[in-house]
Amino acid sequence: MTLQPNPAPQADRAAPRRATARLVLASALLSAALASGGTAALLLATAPAPVPAATAAGTVTAASAVPAGTTVTQLDPSDAVAAVAAAAEPSVVTIAASGGGRNASVGGTGIIVSADGLILTTAVVAPSDTTYAILLADQHETTARVVASDPAHGLVLLRAATTGLTPATIGTGASLTIGQLVVAVGSPLGEFTDTVTAGIVSGLDRSIDLRDPSSGRRVALEGLVQTDAAINAGSSGGPLLDATGTVVGVIVTSAGDGQGIGFAIPIGDAQTLLAAGQA
Fold it and tell me: 105: Cβ–Cβ under 8 A, 6 or more apart, which residues?
């Protein structure tokens, strides 16, 4: 009697085929991984670092950047604008329209630069040596007269008939950067006092021609700061402030045939006039 070997169970015959299939699949995946190694490396190299978990509303702890236990507050841009506007408000005045005919002023804005009453504005707002009505931020009224002017830069310095004012923080004329946040405060149309607009520095070293209100001559202003913060008639003379609340420019005008194109005189151009007024 010849004994025949028992046939291998079905499962045993399938096992080598499954092992072979797994081997083929693994080889294919390995080949694909090797072929795309550069891409994988790039993805790993450019993957963003994990964002630290919030420790409190508005704050995060950045252990790798600051000492342990220190928190860094992330300020929303709208919060920055609100803080700047609140700090600047006591130092901004409205200058009423005055004069008549060719020398008429449409009114505008001024910046308090000393507690004893010096106010910086533009020749557009205060074109002649006369008495101007001043509305302070607390709604008290006073008057002011021109004490010095700088026609080359289109700036005028007034002295109010009052003291105990809150001066603005005046910058030194440090360079601005295109794209940085700026805040404008003024009295558009001479009516909407303490109007706040915000934007960015859109350009630097711009040149424009203006009509001198007192003489009717064309005056070229150079080295101006361009901004997209809304500027309207009556805003002239108001402060252009950076995110720290420092005055970096004096608003002068906007482009009449364009939108979002306003100009300010760099505060560095006012340093000589300010020194003369305080001498």
Answer: 95, 97, 98, 99, 124, 125, 126, 127, 213
Tell how far CA 26 is from the center of its chain.
Answer: 56
Q: Exposed, middle or buried by CB within 10 Å (0-12, 13-18, 19+), for 157?
A: buried
Residue 52: other Cβ atoms inside 10 A: 13
Contacts of 63 (CB under 8 A, 6+ apart): 52
Q: Which has the closest alpha carbon to 154: 226, 59, 99, 221?
A: 221
- Residue identified by tokens 């070229």 is 220
| Number of alpha carbons in the 13 Å side-chain half-sphere of residue 260 | 7
Tell me the C-alpha distance between 157 and 192, whole Å.
Answer: 23
- The C-alpha angle with vertex 139 and arms to 133 and 143, in degrees rounded to 5, equals 20
Taking residue 277's Cβ as centre, other Cβ atoms within 10 Å add up to 20
- Tens of pLDDT, residues 56-68: 433 333 334 445 6
Whole-model pTM? 0.71
Query: Does residue 200 register a pLDDT over 90?
Result: yes
Q: What is the pLDDT of residues 216-239, one digit of tens each?
A: 677 789 999 999 999 998 999 999
